[in-house]
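Deliverable D5.2: sample structural annotation.
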Amino acid sequence: MAVIDVTEATFEAEVIERSRSVPVVVDFWAEWCGPCRQLGPILEAAAAKREGKVVLAKLDTDSNQPLAQAFQIRGIPAVKAFKDGHVVSEFVGAQGRPAVEQFFDALVPSEADALVEGGDEVGLRRALEMEPGRADAALPLARLLLERGEAEEALSILENVAGDFQAEGLAARLRLQRDGMLEQELATLDRGELEQALQMLIAALGSENGHREDVRRVIVGELDALGPEHPLARETRRKLAAALY
């Protein structure tokens, strides 16, 4: 059931409640609306391609004016996507097939998304084959490998990732360990003594000229894991800035 017709009487059950288990895209349209007739088949085709993963609900605004007013529909076609009972994305006006496909893709997890969510080694490897450099697959896979003592493979996987602080931080840490650098600092980190380890790493920035950038990456990766509002992260960022500049 990729496409359904909804009314004011059925909207709560068919859209709001249904969206708690599967995304629901609502097409606000009217019979007299030419652009609506152009957009409708494109929406229906996109929904059909994702049968079971998304539902398209069509609502005639002429017959359900109170509902159209409640959602502030001022021009049609208007398309709103619902998840967990709330509007999460929308657009107004006729769109071409590529834009509609992109709109639906953002709602429905890709195969790689599902593999990453599964979290097992085979799935994570497959996700990286499909989308190389994907940090949310590379990082957990590297950690699985490290548990088995396969540091070199973990490092090779992480070095394909760019723009993710935690992945870059773990890769930098593995390079330091491989080169026999900062053994005491990294051992303190391994014991979970994070505040002391961060202080030691910042102090090491002045003496590890050849590895300064990797030391910085380790620190930044740990701060990213803490989150921007964590008190230790805020204090350490100030200390890091002072040490670097």
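Annotation notes: The chain has two domains: 3-105, 116-244. The longest helix spans residues 34-49.
The annotation will be released with the project's public dataset once the embargo ends.
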